[in-house]
Amino acid sequence: MPSSPKIYVAGHRGMVGSAIVRTLQRQGHENIVTRTHAELDLTEQAAVRAFFEQERPDQVYLAAAKVGGIYANNTYPAEFIYQNLMMEANIIEAAFRNGVKNLLFLGSSCIYPKLADQPMREDALLTGTLEATNEPYALAKIAGIKLCESYNRQYHVSHGIDYRSVMPTNLYGPGDNYHPENSHVIPALIRRFHEAKVNRSPRVYIWGTGTPKREFLFVDDMALASVHVMALDKATYDQHTQPMLSHINVGYGSDITIRELAETIGKTVGYEGTIEFDSSKPDGAPRKLMDSARLNALGWHAKVELATGLASAYQDFLKNESART
């Protein structure tokens, strides 16, 4: 590997991809290659192959994905499975064809069964039924893991291929999607509380009982984890993985109830009204917590506390709102 590798970050405009670019730049990497969707449609195989033949990167961070919350996953299942399958298959194959030996694939905690034991360990993969609402997206991400594993199994000895996968818990932070229908829980609640504050609404209603627990990781911590895993020498990495269990969880290490989350976001935004929970609406899974012991053993731990991360996320939301008006 060159001392200053040429690095392609797929999905550099997304929340995770942009954080990876920021992290690489802070660490002194200058030879970073990016393409917007207008410049390169990653679902088009011929275009992706031509790009790799031209650029010949040394490393690839595969952060490009079609993502969204429960509503988006349930409304557009065909788009979620097709686009994610095509992007990861095209990039991984083109990377191999053009001599890329180091690639990091970013997945999602939704790869694990709906009723997986908590905290969720890497070996829970494919041991049960997936959550129905995001099953197409989860299957695409599982396929990405298996693509990396399969290229490693077939081509590590002959070509030195070392393709790795990291599975983040729920992410939030700068660059998030604050769409009122298609966003995840933290950006959705930031928008809801902000609008309630601006409109002086006396109360904010939230689906469910507020008792389910969720884990949240600041996106810059995720980027640091990604760069950390990419930089590990193979012997060290292999000590904490197995040939058929090559992915690694990336989590904060603890979870919080939705009620506590809502109260923290309300305080961050400065909303002074009442928070009410509609128990007639579904709660979803009672708990989703990742077991990140393997990554912790490899020398990485989350650093950004939730209150600090939420303050940064809210400032990002305000900046985006100001730019739109």
UniProtKB/TrEMBL annotation:
EC numbers for this chain: 1.1.1.271
Coiled-coil positions: none
InterPro entries associated with the record: Epimerase_deHydtase, GDP_fucose/colitose_synth, NAD(P)-bd_dom_sf
Pfam families named among the record's database cross-references: Epimerase
Family (UniProt): Belongs to the NAD(P)-dependent epimerase/dehydratase family. Fucose synthase subfamily.
PANTHER family the UniProt entry points to: GDP-L-FUCOSE SYNTHASE
Name of protein: GDP-L-fucose synthase
